[in-house]
Each structure stands twice: as structure tokens, then as C-alpha cells.
Amino acid sequence: MTMTRDVDTLDELRDAVPAPVALPGERVYDRATPWNVAVPVRPAAVVFATSAADVATVMRFAAARGLRVAVQATGHGATAVGDDTVLILTKGLSGCVIDVVERTARVGAGATWQQVIDAAASQGLAPPCGSAPGVGVVGYLTGGGIGPLVRTVGLSSDHVRAVELVTGGGEVLRVTPDEHPELFWGVRGGKSLLGVVTSIEFDLLLIDEFYGGAMYFDGVDAAAVLHAWRSWSAALPETVNTSIAIQQLPPLPGVPAPLAGRMTVAVRYVAVGQAANRGARVDAEAAERLLAPIRAAATPILDSVGVHPHAAIGMVHADPVDPMPVGEDHALLADLPAEAVDAILAAAGPGSGSPQTIVELRLIGGALARDPRHRSAFCHRNAAYSLSTIGVLAPPVAEAVSPHAAALVSALGSWCTGGQMPNFAQSRAPERLSRSYDQDTLHRLLALAARHDPAGVLA
Ligand SMILES: Cc1cc2nc3c(=O)[nH]c(=O)nc-3n(C[C@H](O)[C@H](O)[C@H](O)COP(=O)(O)OP(=O)(O)OC[C@H]3O[C@@H](n4cnc5c(N)ncnc54)[C@H](O)[C@@H]3O)c2cc1C
């Protein structure tokens, strides 16, 4: 029996769940269109969850009817959803409460980093956010999360204190280091394998400003700047975070004229004070001196480096904001010798004909590499660099983006660790799972999933 297009079944879903439900063809159904509009998200029904109880009801309903359940907040990491699946949209769970005394935030599953950044900034605090403020807090934290301060403050999910989790079996659980510790281990890194998070609590950082921004260079200087960045970044202290991106941004509103319609190279830089999380202020002069080798590599065509409030952290990467059709790829590197930089330049530098909009290398390590207070399912703490490619899947390059990204990763083969972070270039393919986790972690995650989702509801 096909449950997927069974209208009676879906009408029963409306009766069972108090939250609004949209079926294909209904106007609000399109609110499930993800940020990455290239990903086909066409569920049997969309449930606009308003509470953990709604989510639990959907889990039990799906288990009884042979349907699957997926979850989405913003769709920045969207994966395909078909008509055998009910999609829980969490946008309505957008509460954000800051506890100034405890220095924590408790946010709903639909909150974006921008909401938390704004709420925390008014108290001189900062969340352990990612580079793009429009990304969802829960989607990001369940994948670990490497933000623009990762070398200084470590993996973002190491700052999580508690989670409200609805398991595939329909139980609503408070998950902390002491309550359901195995789920606390697994939900930090395991994405939605173990359930749908309806709210999350995490520590805020005592950081209200940083020295940094981005320096943009002409594409003709790519070789000089990439090689200078490679040798310079290898010796930076943990208070300094940096990434570099070869960009080919389209001439769209919001893209600064000097960066539009040409190849440029962005060096991103974020420095905070030593013991930043205890309120130490950044030494701007020292941070500026550290940047001298990059300034000497070539002449910037645009420069936003200076002292900024933490609330402006999104300007460092200046990630794309509006929904778009993107194809992503991702690899972790153990090392970045000069030959690896040459391989990146050959594939994505001037004259390469690269179809990618962004080819980005983030220096990681630092605090990320240290064991956290509470172990989690996040693997790959020892990688030295994270490589990401983003291509716009539109003519004339649409067909070239994925093969080109695969060729670039393959050219870096001997320096790649073979691992991938759960947050980047997401997919539900088994091959992807085995790259996201080491064997023991994957085995443990799947055993937990089988115990807490006996009907295998979670897509
Ligand atoms: C422009 C851009 C910049 C980014 N920058 C960074 C960065 O700096 N660092 C970094 O680590 N990552 C980064 N990412 C990756 C991002 O963290 C992931 O794509 C993340 O999954 C997005 O979460 P979302 O809720 O916004 O997306 P969604 O597409 O809504 O969710 C993606 C996945 O997250 C999981 N998820 C979402 N909500 C829940 C829930 N309530 N319960 C359980 N699981 C859930 C599900 O597996 C879901 O499929 C970036 C992505 C983009 C597009």
C-alpha cells in the first residue's frame, strides 16, 4: 500500500496534529522551499510545528502509517525530501531567551544565529555562531559547527548545555550531560539521526568586539596572496582566525562593485583578546601587526579590517544571504604544502575557467583540536584546514559545478584526510555518513538511532 499519496492519511494528519499542516498544491506549502532552492523538497505534507508535542505527534503518526519524517529550519543545509516523508518546519519555534547571569541562551529550533547575535550583543555577549548569521542555530549546532572564532573558542557544539529532543519514537526528552548522556553525546554532531531538537541551551561568550574583517585582492594576485597566506597562517596564535576564498561573485545588488563580475581573493581575519572569553579586550595594534605579511603580499582592492562589534561578525565572510541554487562540496585537509596551493590555483585560480562562485579554505585547529569537557559524536578534530566549494547551479556553469568540485578535491587527494564535517555538503547517502564519522562513532550513533527510533521514521 502506498501511504505517500493517500489523501485520507494526510487528512488524518491534519486531525491528529494541532499545528498547521500544508499539502502539495496549497499556497503555504511553498514556505518549505529551502534556502538552497536547487534541492528538491517535495514532502507529502509540511507541518508547521509550534511545540515539542506537535513534533512527537508527527513521529507517532508517521510510525503508524509507514511514513518518514524530516526536519528543516532555513534550508541552508537542505537535503532532498520526497513524497514518502512529512517535513517538520521549525520556523515557528523561534524563541530566544538570554540569561545574563548564567551567560546562556535558550533558543527554539527555528531561531537563526542573527536573532541570538542581536539579543546577546545588547548584553555584551556573543553566541558561538557560524560565519553566516542567516543559518539556523540548531541545524548548525547538531553538526558541530566551526565558526569564525573556531580556533579561539573551539567547536561550537562544545558550548551546548542542554537540548530538548523529540526522538523518532515520539518521546520528548531533556538531554544534558546527566540526563540521557548517550543522546547528549550523539545529538552534538549527529544532526537529526537521533531525533528532532525543539530547543537548545548553550553558553554565551564574553566577547563584544573583534579586530578583523576581510581584505580583498584582485584575482591576478591570487598566487602571491594564497602562497603568502599559507606560510603566514601556519604560525598564527589561537587568538587569530583566518580563511581565504577565491571568489567569482555575480554583479548582483549587494555585491560591492570592486568584487562583482571578476575573480577576487578574500582573506578573512578575526582576532580577539587573549583569554577572550574572560572579557579580555583585543589588542588592535598587535592584531594589525600580525596582518602585515598579508598586506605586503599585494595591494587590496577593498579592505574592511578594523575594530568591529561582535554583532557585525557576518561581515567577515560576507556569505550570500538570499536563497539561491547552490552545489557544494567539502573536504578536510591534514596539511597545506605549497604544492597543494598550486593545485588549488590550477583548478580555481586565474585562467582555470573555474565555474565555482567560492572556493574557500579555513584554517582550523587551535582550540578545536582539544578534547572537550563532554565528548560528542563530532569527529575530525585533528584536521588542519577545511575546504568548501560553492557554485551557483544556473546556466552557463550549472552542469560544470559538481564535476569541477570533485576534480579539485581529487587533485588535493594526498593532503585530504578523507573525512567531512556533517555540516558541509550535506547528504543522506551512506557514503557521506561514513566520511562524517569514524567507524566506532557511526556504529554507536546507528545503535542509538535504532533504540530511540525503532520504526526508522527519521529520514
Ligand atoms: C552560506 C552558508 C554558510 C555556512 N557557514 C557555516 C559555518 O561557518 N560553519 C559551519 O559549521 N557550518 C556552516 N554552514 C553549514 C550549516 O551549518 C549547515 O548547512 C546547517 O545544517 C544549516 O542549518 P539550517 O537549520 O540553517 O538548515 P536546514 O537545511 O534547515 O537544516 C539542515 C539539517 O540540519 C539538521 N537539523 C535542522 N534542524 C534540526 C532540528 N530541529 N533537529 C535536528 N536536526 C536538525 C537536519 O539534519 C537538517 O537536514 C554554512 C552553510 C551555508 C549555506
Automatic annotation (TrEMBL):
Domain called FAD-binding PCMH-type: residue spans: 39-207
Pfam families assigned: FAD_binding_4
Keywords: FAD, Flavoprotein, Oxidoreductase
Molecular-function annotations in GO: FAD binding; oxidoreductase activity
InterPro entries linked to this entry: FAD-bd_PCMH (IPR016166), FAD-bd_PCMH-like_sf (IPR036318), FAD-bd_PCMH_sub1 (IPR016167), FAD-bd_PCMH_sub2 (IPR016169), FAD-linked_Oxidoreductase (IPR050416), Oxid_FAD_bind_N (IPR006094), Oxy_OxRdtase_FAD_BS (IPR006093)
Cofactor dependency: FAD
Family: Belongs to the oxygen-dependent FAD-linked oxidoreductase family.
PANTHER family reported in the protein's UniProt record: BINDING OXIDOREDUCTASE, PUTATIVE (AFU_ORTHOLOGUE AFUA_1G17690)-RELATED (PTHR42973), FAD-BINDING PCMH-TYPE DOMAIN-CONTAINING PROTEIN (PTHR42973:SF39)
Protein name, as recorded: FAD-linked oxidase
